[in-house]
Amino acid sequence: MKRYALIALLLAVVLTACGRPTLPPHSGAVSEGLSPLQLVTQHWLSGTQRYLCRQSGVLKLSWREIPLQGVLRIDCAAHEARLVAMDSMGVKLFDVTVTGEDMSLNYLLPLLEEHPQLPKVVAQSVRRIFLTPQPQAGDRLLPRCDGQPYRLVSNVQSGAEFTFGGDPIRLQTTRVATDDENWQVDYFNDSDSAMLRTPTMIVLDDKNYRLTLWMEAVRKL
Amino acid sequence: MDSRLIRLCLILMVFFPAMVVAQPLPEEMADEIRHSAAEVQTLSSQFVQEKFLSMFAETLTSNGRFYYQRPDQLRWELTEPVGSGFVLNGDHGERWHERVDGSEPFRLEDDPAMSLIAEQLFAWARADLRWLQEHYQIELIGVEPICLRLTPPEGQGRAFLDHLLIQFSDSAAYVTEVEIHEHDGDYTRIRFSHTDVNAPLTGTLFTGREGL
User: Fold this and answer.
1) Domains and CATH numbers, chain A
2) B73-108, pLDDT tens digit by residue?
3) pTM for this entry
4) Peptide linkage before A168 cis (omega within 30 of 0)
5) Residues in B touching A90 (Cβ below 8 Å)
6) Helix (H) or strand (E) holding B106
7) Terminus of chain B with fewer CB atoms < 10 Å: N or C?
8) Inter-chain touch B53–A71, beta carbons under 8 Å
């Protein structure tokens, strides 16, 4: 079980910065003439729905890649997510509830108790990817030319910007750049999941790590 | 015992004759398992791994395959929904994951996690009762087929493991089902099927990711 301790240790130490490898291109076609309200209301996390997502993922550090899997329940109305993370043998590593401002640890594999950084880092990633910041109808739409993606500047969180593109229109990128934070999430759709408009692959780039998630299955609750 | 309980016991005896009240594993049954398992040189099997998460009332199903060659070669591979696996070959091995290029070699003496997993898998594959009796309190809970309940002693694996259920084949030579129960009601069930006993296996199976 020292492997888990190693994972936590790897996350805990200060890591050298990862480069930002090239990501696959986002879909190019864009519907024209949309308002911020129209952009936001088509976003899959904008309503009051609850989702259950089965995910696999890879946490890429500067010298090692760590595979993970998990089940995530997202409650859009409550702005809350609960994640159970497991290793590939099905061993439950931890169970966290994440809100926009806080996290609570419901379970931690006893052998990981000395290294609570692992769930904290993963909880932070869940928050950034699924909870906050989220685009709002009151955000400021930047000027654009026809065919270009839409860019919304958050009126809620300083330094946050959202890019919408594709047809049907979807959130493609969330970027936060402040003195304290500098990270970006890219959402990709490699299949037509128009029923739910959910991304099929998500990439979070932080200066210290890259987390890539594949949404293996998503269903409404 | 009141009459309702007696009636319940009679009903259970009629409809579930193979079930027994949990009791220590009789020595003659232990001998039967040891004798049958000793004949096994190789195993190859498919398996279905079901992880039940009580909090979400959700069962996550994965499929995989498993190969074992006495005394200490093993390949454990999940094929769906996401491929991952490892091989063990004596005191070393390598593991891989579909989302990660290449594979990662390891030595058991340097990797306590893999060492722990290897111990468990080899104990099940060999039906190694001596090892199991050293590490668990064993109770017999079924006889046709043999089904055992394994409880770790306080202070050891008990911290995250409540108990295991292990079901043997009719011949008692190999394990057909394992359930790993956690304290909070979550459990993992691994059901083996299409098991071949003592079929020849190619050596490359145990050399690494590409060995299949």
Assistant:
1) 29-218 (2.50.20.10)
2) 999 999 998 888 999 998 999 988 888 888 888 898
3) 0.78
4) yes
5) 49, 51, 60, 62, 180, 188
6) strand B100-107
7) N
8) yes
Measure the CA–CA gap between A23 and A195, rounded to whole angstroms.
25
Are the beta carbons of B97 and A88 separated by less than 8 Å? yes
Q: How far apart are CA A149 and CA A165, in angstroms?
A: 5
User: Rg for chain A (alpha carbons), in Å?
Assistant: 17
Alpha helices in B126-167 (DSSP H): 129-135
What residues of chain A lie within 8 A of the CB of B99, using their CB? 56-58, 65, 67, 212, 214
Which candidate from A69, A90, A110 shows the least CB-CB separation from B82?
Answer: A69
The answer to whether the Cβ–Cβ distance between B60 and A54 falls below 8 Å is yes
CATH architecture of B23-198: Clam (2.50)
The whole-number average pLDDT for the span A76-88 is: 91
Q: What is the dihedral of CA B45, B121, B188, B22, to 10 degrees?
A: 100
Paired tokens of A34: 């949309």
Question: Is A56 part of the contact surface with chain B (CB cutoff 8 Å)?
Answer: yes
Which residue type occupies B184? D
Give the closest residue to A108 by CA, choosing from A91, A125, A88. A91
Residue-level pLDDT at A208: 84
Burial B154-170 (b: 16+ CB within 10 A, else e): eeebeebbbbbbbbbbe
Q: Which residues of B touch A86 (CB under 8 A)?
A: 51
What pLDDT is attached to residue A78? 95
Report d(CA B144, CA A188) in Å as an integer. 52
Q: What pLDDT band is residue A27 in, cutting at 50, 70 and 90?
A: low
ipTM: 0.71
